[in-house]
Amino acid sequence: MAESKLDLLQGTLDLMVLQILAAMGEQHGYGIARRIEQVSGDEVLLNQGTIYAALVRLQQRGWIRAEWGVSDNNRKAKFYAITQRGRKQLAEDAAYWQRLSGVMGRLLSMSEEGGEE
Amino acid sequence: MKDQIREGLQRVRSFFRKDAMDRELDEEMASHIEMAVEENLKKGMGEEEARRQALVRFGGEQQAKETHREARGLPWVDMVLQDLRYTFRSLRRDRGFAFIAIVILALGIGANIAVFSVVNTLVLRPLPYPHAEQLVWFAGNHGQGGLSGVTYNVSSYEEYAKHARSFQEVTCYQAFWGSTEYNMTGHGDPKHVQAVMVANNFFHMMGVNPLLGRTFRPEEHAKGAALVSMLTYPFWQREFGGDPNVVGRTIEMNNKAVTIIGVLPQSFDFASVFSPGLRVDFFIPAYMDEIRNWGNTVAIVARLKPGVTLGQAQAEANILSPQFRAAHPEPDWFMEYTADLSSLQDYVTGKLRRSLFALWGAVGLILLIVCVNLSNLLLARLASRSKEFAMRSALGAGRGRLIGQLLTESLALSGIGATLGVAIAYGVTTYLAHQGSITLPMLNLVLVDGAALLWTLLITLLVGLLFGIVPGLILSRTNVQESLKDAGRGLSEGRGHDRLRSVLVVSEVALACVLLVGSGLLLRSFLRVLDVDLGFQPSEAAVVDINYDPGAKGEKIAPSLQQILAAVKAVPGVEAAGVADMLPLDRDRSWGLVNPSREYGKNDQQSAIVRIVTPGYLEAMGIRLIEGRDITWQEVFDRAPVAVINETAARYHWPGQSPIGREARGFSDKPGRIIGVVADVRVSSLESSSGPEIYLPASIDPEGAQLVVRSKLPPDVLTTSILPVLRRLNPAQPNNTFRPVQSLVDRSVSPRRFFVYLVGIFAALGLTLAALGIYGVISYSVTRQTHEIGIRMALGASGAQVQRSVIGRTLRLAGIGIAIGAVGSIVIARWIESLLFRTEPWDPVAFVSMVTLLLAIAGLAGYIPSMRASRVEPVIALRHE
Fold first, then answer.
1. DSSP-assigned beta bridge partners for residue B172
2. CB B106 within 8 A of CB B424
3. Burial of B777 (C-beta count, 10 Å sphere; 0-12/13-18/19+)
4. How far A18 CA lies from chain B's nearest CA (Å)?
5. In chain A, which residues have their Cβ closer than 8 Å to the Cβ of B34?
6. Three-class DSSP labels, B10-58
7. What percent of chain B lies above the pLDDT cut of 90?
8. Total beta-carbon pairs less than 8 A apart between chain A and chain B
9. Which of B424, B414, B327 is CA-nearest to residue B367?
10. Where does residue A7 rank: exposed (0-12), middle (13-18), buried (19+ CB within 10 A)?
11. Are strands B541-545 and B250-253 parallel, antiparallel or unpaired?
């Protein structure tokens, strides 16, 4: 592994989880973790175990809910789904991230070109 | 915001469902790994490799659990609990330290809670009546002249009640209720009972509702009305077993039928507020027309209108009293019935406030000494634990976490100490509340209540932080890692550290010095009070309440008293016997006494404390006859207007001449004659000197009869030998027992004794703690300097020299502490000056003796370690390192 992986910024993981649940519907913890790895093209440094702290936090805030079920290959697993309030939160956080990354993008491109436009 | 509350609640919930949630997480993680393994297998990995890869991707399982717990629960509480567990483990390891620390804390905190409970009940908390802040006490005659001076006659009470606009209500009670005798018959054995006459609106104004029945009606206060009474709660319980059907029953008081119309609630304790140390059994209506001619007998209490201040009411009273006087030319309006108003609370406990605050200050000092002592102990402990802290630090504990650990320990200690302290305080307050012999108001109401527990919490936190903070600061300044490298002694090595311990000892000694000098001054005052010339001899004298047949008025009294006294004197062991209506330091009243051939100014004293006595009373009480003679039985039978007066009265009314045989007026319708002069007798307290006193023959209707017997026999022997005699002469004689006359003195000095004992106990506690502190520090420094001492001795120093240097250091520390403490003592002494009696605030005896005591104890505390130092064997000491 030549290049080091991206460290997750504070709060990013929560947003990722919400987005995945919103886009893909009910998922178990393993499914969510795999999904993050796939989308990021293995660029993100993620210990899969840390996802459970994010899941319990989101659950306590009422943004997702969980219940035990059976997976495709007949294994008992806890399934998570986004709630109405979770969607609202997702919309807010996503808008924030887009604004921030837009600003960061413009700022960084400016410096790359070595001066003013 | 709502989300945050929800999250908070969820976290609390998770905190208590720790195990269930951990299990669920375990299950979830297990299924996670299995799914990962399965996927890896599908990718074609071998069984072992598939599992290894899955675990790698998952990361640390333990770490996942930790972050999960942190995210869901209360990590802060978890940390504290962990620290606590650690604390208890380490305290269990160090039992000796824990035991000493907890005992010291329990004593310090317990004393504080107990004193706070007393202060709170007596001074801080309002009196136990609704809107007690509105209640006002009227003091007549500018507060002078004892109870007789400050009380009012019925007409002046009625004038205030009618005209004063500042008050919702003005009421009164008969203040000399203790001097009226009631003999209850028709319900078991005959008994003396105490009854208070109150005005019609008394209970209404005080805001008291009867527990059973009703209160008095206006018409029941008229002369000739059917006799009614209300029972106090304790009397109802004691005599009627709490019978709910008691209302409507009839009892006999002084051979008259009286109907019980109500029972007062337990919460209304009249005596504990208005006459501490006495007991009330009944309330009866004040028959205004009957007591109108009794002179000053009623005490006025009033309730301010809402919004009216005490100052406004006072201004109104100042205007009213001259008007009243102008409107009343009649002779019984013999004084200006001015009114000095104070809140009832001030009247009841105002005099005690300073004593109580002094007591409070004393326990505060104790608490400070406790803190200093524990700081020292913890400091010593910190030194021996430096390795442990270095180890924890190396394992990743931050400095904040280590200080947190120290504070957790000190708070845990103070918490345990406080718990025991509450138990101690509970015991002490329960004891005090049942101490009938201490005449402090509302002492029976003292208990460890919610406010006291709150106070406990506050001082516990404060103490824990205070004594934990010093070691914490040391720790925060030290590089803990260093001590791991260090060979042995660790944290406490530095000179600065030593200085800090010295500063602690010095402050401890200074605090103890202030405490000791203060208590020394109070103790000396107390001894001075006990040393006061009472004017009578309380030892070898006993007294019993006798009933001489209340029906007998006028002529019949004297023969019956003479018969009783003759029979009593015939009892073996009785040296002298006499009867008086009231005893000194117990009850009193005043009548007029003037010399008709002397000019009197407006402010000159024209009244005297009166005692109605039989021949022999003066001898039985041991009152010294200075001049003239005692009253004779013939004078009693003849109803002769003769009087024995005290020295003060003689000097005041007949200055420069002997009053014997002179004419005197004011106490009799006929011109009176002085037949004797006796020593001054203390009337209301040991501290205040006597005014004019006068003894009149028992031919005047006495209000009660106290039989005083002088005998070497103890009171209970007198009870068994004399009471049957009294019973034979008078079957209605109540079943009373002899009490020593000394008990009057004891009761009178009981508040002062109470304060002196408490302050003395606190001073002893402070001294012990200071001694422990000195011992700890010196002993520790000797241990630490063993090596150095060894070198000195190897170089030729003798054991005695080493010992001298250790004791010298001890005394130097103590000396500095005492110097600072002496300055503090002077400040404190000035502040408690008003509590002292015939003792200057800079009383050299108190100062010198207490400073010497402190130095001696300090020397002793240093002597033990110094002995150890002098026995150091140089060879062993030098090999030691």
1. B300
2. yes
3. buried
4. 16
5. 75
6. HHHHHHHCHHHHHHHHHHHHHHHHHHHHHHHHHCCCCHHHHHHHHHHHH
7. 40
8. 82
9. B414
10. exposed
11. unpaired
Provide the residue count of chain B: 881
Gap between the Cα atoms of B450 and B98, Å rounded: 28
Q: Which class would CATH give A12-112? A: mainly alpha
Count CB neighbours of B327 within 10 A. 11
Q: From chain B, pick out residues whose CB is under 8 angstroms from the CB of A32.
A: none
How many angstroms separate the CA atoms of A23 and A12, rounded? 16
The stretches of B120-185 forming alpha helices (DSSP H) are: 146-150, 154-163
Chain B residue whose CA is closest to A75: B31
Asked whether the beta carbons of residue B71 and residue A49 sit closer than 8 angstroms, the reply is no
pTM: 0.77
In terms of DSSP bridges, do strands B693-697 and B590-592 run parallel, antiparallel, or are they unpaired? Answer: unpaired
Q: Is A88 on the interface with B (CB under 8 A)?
A: no
Tokens, residue B520: 């020394």
Q: CB distance A48–B63 less than 8 Å?
A: no
| Confidence at residue B488, expressed as pLDDT on a 0 to 100 scale | 46
What element of type H or E holds B430? helix B399-433
Of B11, B34, B68, the CB nearest to A53: B68
- By three-state DSSP, how is residue B102 classified? helix
SS3 B190: coil
Task: Look up tokens 């005893």; give the residue.
Answer: B583
pLDDT digits (tens, 9 = 90+) for B47-70: 899 999 888 888 888 888 888 888
Given a contact cutoff of 8 angstroms between Cβ atoms, the answer to whether B846 and B521 are in contact is yes
Please tell me which of the candidates A30, A33, A62 has its beta carbon nearest to residue B6.
Answer: A62
3-state secondary structure of B206: helix
Tokens 């205030």 -> residue: B160
Annotated domain spans of chain B: 2-73, 141-338, 353-531+747-880, 541-740
- Closest approach of chain A CAs to the CA of B28, in angstroms? 6
- Show the beta-strand stretches assigned E in B647-686: 663-664, 672-678
DSSP string, B698-732: TTS--SS-EEEEEESS-HHHHHHHHHHHHHHH-TT
B14 touches chain A (CB under 8 A): yes
Cβ-based contacts of A52 with chain B (< 8 Å):
25, 28-29, 64, 67-68
**Strand, helix or coil for residue A70:** strand
Residue corresponding to tokens 């001449």: B657
d(CA B296, CA B2) in angstroms, rounded, equals: 70
What's the token pair of residue B447? 């208990």
CB–CB contact B58 A29 (8 Å): no
Q: Which of B6, B27, B61 sits opposite A49 (nearest CB)?
A: B61
- Residues of A within 8 A of B71 (CB-CB) are 53-54, 56-57
Alpha carbon distance, N-terminus to C-terminus of chain A = 37
**Interface touch B25/A71, C-beta < 8 Å:** no
Is residue B487 very low, low, confident or very high in pLDDT (cuts 50, 70, 90)?
very low
- pLDDT mean over B739-751: 90
Paired residues of B130 in beta bridges: none
Residue B741 has pLDDT above 80, yes or no: yes
8 A C-beta contact, residue B104 and residue B417 = yes
For B321, what's the count of Cα atoms within 13 Å in the CB-facing half-sphere? Answer: 18
Residue showing tokens 């033990």: B864
Give the integer Cα–Cα distance in Å for B88 and B405: 11
Closest Cα in chain B to A76: B31
- Of B647, B642, B648, the C-alpha closest to B630 is B642
Asked if B22 reaches chain A (Cβ–Cβ under 8 Å), the answer is no
Q: What DSSP line would sit under B267-287, residue for residue?
A: T--HHHHHSTT----EEEE--
- Residue B158: predicted pLDDT: 92
Q: B207: which 2 tokens?
A: 């805001």
